Amino acid sequence: MAVADSLPGEFDVIVLGTGLTESIIAAACSRVGKSVLHVDRQAYYGGNWASFTFSGLLAWIEENKEAFSKEEITEWMNDINEGEEIILLNSSDKSIMNVEVFNFASQDPVEDVKEEASLQKKDDPFLTVDPVEDLKEGSSQKENDLFLTVDLVEDLKEEGSSQRKDDLFLTVAVAESFESGIEKSPDTYVNEHPAETLEHNDVCTSSQKKNPELSIDEKRSVNVCKTSVAETRKTITYSQIIRESRRFNIDLVSKLLYSRGSLVDLLIKSNVSRYAEFKNVNRILTYQNGSVEQVPCSRADVFGSKQLTMVEKRMLMKFLSFCIEYEQHPEEYADFKERTFSDFLKTKNLTPNLANFILHSIAMVLDTDLTTEGLRATQHFLQSLGRYGNTPFLFPLYGLGEIPQCFCRMCAVFGGIYCLRHGIRCLVVDKETRRCKAIIDSCGKRISCGHFLVESSYLSDDHHQKVKYRLISRAVLITDRSLLKADSEQLISLVTVPPLKSGQPAVRIIELCSSSMTCMQGTYLVHLTCSSVETAKEDLSPVVSKLFSENMKAGEKGEVEAERPNVLWALYFNMPDFSSVERSSYDLPNNVYVCCGPDSGLGNDCSIQQAEHIFHQMFPDEEFCPPAPNPEDIVYDGDGTPPEESVFKEHGESEVGDGEERTLDTKYLVTSTTNEAEDAQESVKEIPTE
Questions:
Q1: Is pLDDT above 50 for 514?
Q2: What does residue 173 show for φ and ψ, rounded to 5 degrees?
Q3: Which helix (H) or strand (E) holds 397?
Q4: What is the pLDDT of residues 299-334, one digit of tens each?
Q5: What is the rounded distance in angstroms from the CA atom of residue 275 to the CA atom of residue 271?
Q6: Distance from CA of residue 21 to its chain's centroid?
């Protein structure tokens, strides 16, 4: 192919797979001046971390149901020299298993129903990042680069993928801190369809001092959707879901960002935060005693809770205060270091209600996890409170698949070359040194490399048979209402469900509203995740039956079932979790590194730690993801004319000297507050620069 022939014949690093870990490493290598070739056999970015429109997800489902044929070795074997051997890689993804789809929405005729605003697909897999590039079919991603023009950068989204490229600023809904004792619920979102907006206000902002500061372009149009829970709901049909397909951004992986987690710290440190927008998770819920209840986690939640007695409130606050500084009181848990956290809680005279809250909804650990793991998880939860809101979590607008794309863009800006729909057939290994010398790509071209990174699903079946890995059970539901009724419909909720029976796993649920830009108006996107015991359907369907109704006929429902959200559409599948597999288990050359893919945890620490570890193995003397320069700091070649003063500089962005804490501007931040009288009304307010 002409495009493959135009690729350089040698790179410092070749990365196969565009998941989160691979994308972070590619960006880190490119940032320190290494030449990077980043390829993916799929037509979209993210791999098993990707986000899809609804029609894109249907195409992905069909792709994973197809039988895979073994690729024959052809004339490219002539490129293998004496003293070399090859390691074959998978040409197709076999990691997704037990895919089951159920449609419960009314079956209206869908002839001639087309996806709204669907645009024509382009065939050229290679292009230059262009400020006026068209959108791809099935993609909600915009393409606009205010910094540099990057040659040979693959378009960041193909058919069915839902990611955007023009979000250059991190927008975070900010609420009052844990210490303030004031509970606020952010409901702000960016609405790209003003015609659908019920009310258009500017946004107010309130920020806790000394937080890492996050900025937003003041020229961006921000619309606030003022909603209330309707007593009667219009029936949503399957044809409507198909027609509104582009409003959905459905993640294959369901995770959140701890506001004091390693991913948020890395986004701020590397300046990649400018490429994404985020929304607060508004509430944490749990299922117990046959109903869904809100978990009190902040000071305001605890003392405002009607579910706890005054004695329970004091007991809970006392225990949480201990967990924040548990390292300073080792005598309290010294006898339980080798025992479970569940056993430790029993010695604290906590009521079963409180023990359930702490174990499953705050620490979010298993019954078998040790005491130190539970205390560490509880401390991490509490330390993240109040940084950006009254819960510890953030969710990226347009889905989690945005995050790998952000790092891919950083890599491209610093010279990385991207090729989608472009696989690697094999590795060429020197028999004497046992190092990977080169790769043979899907076009038969031999490309030399110093280091090679591969996502675990690309390894052959022979390698997978040598290792023991776990499975993750996943379900994706489209529902018509929230699990717990509230004054506002625009809430993101984390729901924890303890094991319903002995031997069953605990289930984590993330319920997303339309203001998260992941589903159409009038629906909710619900992600269920747990460690696999059986198939995804067998693991998760008991929880779905407890919390949701799969019967759309109102006349046939009982009184309890009628109060539950209706499931309009459901998908179940299993995916592998290689996070516990040691690199040595694969028996690969010492300059070949395996990225584990998604793990079953709620946060992203595993991926960040692995990315940093692999980077330092390759380049021990280089800094991991140093800050990228701001646009106004770039020196352009040519006539020497300095660029126009950046609008962001006008907003009070100050230069940071050596040794100072690096932050972004906080003059304009997005937040929202819940006011019972005004029903989430918002207004513009400028915060004076400190």
A1: yes
A2: -75, 120
A3: none
A4: 777 877 777 888 888 888 999 999 999 999 999 999
A5: 9
A6: 12
DSSP string, 634-679: PPPSSS-PPPPPPTTGGGTPPP--TTSPP----SS-BB----TTTT
Of the two residues 569 and 656, the one the predictor is more confident about is: 569
**CA distance to 25, 548, 566, per residue, from 557 (Å):** 52, 12, 11
328-331 long-range contacts (CB < 8 A, ≥24 apart) are none
The string of pLDDT tens digits covering residues 364-402 is 988 888 999 999 999 999 999 988 888 999 999 999 999
State yes or no: pLDDT of 287 exceeds 60.
Answer: yes
Confidence at residue 461, expressed as pLDDT on a 0 to 100 scale? 78
CA 100 to chain centroid:
23
Q: Find out whether 566 and 532 touch, Cβ atoms under 8 Å.
A: no
**Is residue 174 classed as helix, strand or coil in its secondary structure?**
coil
Label the pairing between strands 493-497 and 51-52: unpaired
Q: Please give the Cα distance from 99 to 219 (Å, whole number).
A: 44
Give the Cα separation of 589 and 581 in Å (integer).
Answer: 16
Per-residue CA distances from 226 to 191, 621, 674 (Å):
12, 52, 11
Alpha-helical segments (H) within 171-253: 238-243
Between the two ends of the chain, the Cα-to-Cα distance in Å is 57
**DSSP states of 270-302 as a string?**
HTGGGG--EEE--EEEEEETTEEEEPP-SHHHH
Count of all residues that appear for the chain in the document: 690
Q: Between 684 and 503, where is the model more confident?
A: 503
How many angstroms from the chain centroid is the CA of residue 55?
Answer: 20
Whether residue 420 contacts residue 154, with contact meaning beta carbons closer than 8 Å, is answered with yes
CA distance 547 to 541: 10
- Helix 371-384 to helix 310-324 angle (10° resolution) is 100
* 8 A C-beta contact, residue 425 and residue 76: yes
The residues, ordered by sequence, that sit 6+ positions from 414 with a Cβ below 8 Å of its Cβ are 27, 30, 31, 33, 628
Nearest Cα to 297, choosing from 175, 392, 173?
392
Confidence (pLDDT) at 418: 95
Look at 149 and 420; give whichever has higher pLDDT. Answer: 420
Cα 145 from Cα 168, distance rounded (Å):
9
Of 658, 580, 592, whose CA–CA distance to 439 is shortest?
Answer: 592
Selection from 255, 244, 192 nearest residue 46 by Cα: 255
Dist. CA 176–CA 206, nearest whole Å? 7
CB atoms within 10 A of CB 83: 11
Q: What secondary structure does DSSP assign to 466-477, as a single string?
A: TS--EEEEEEEE
Cβ–Cβ under 8 Å, residues 462 and 454: no
State how far the Cα of 408 lies from the Cα of 527, in Å rounded to an integer.
25
Please state the rounded mean pLDDT for residues 467-496.
92
Rounded-to-integer distance, Cα 274 and Cα 631, Å: 11
Amino acid letter at 459? L
With beta carbons less than 8 A apart as the criterion, state whether 208 and 177 touch: yes
**The two three-digit tokens of residue 258, written as one number:** 């701890």
**What integer pLDDT is reported at residue 72 of this predicted model?**
53
Q: Tokens 């900010």 label which residue? A: 174
Task: Name the packing angle between helices 262-270 and 402-413 (round to 10°).
Answer: 30
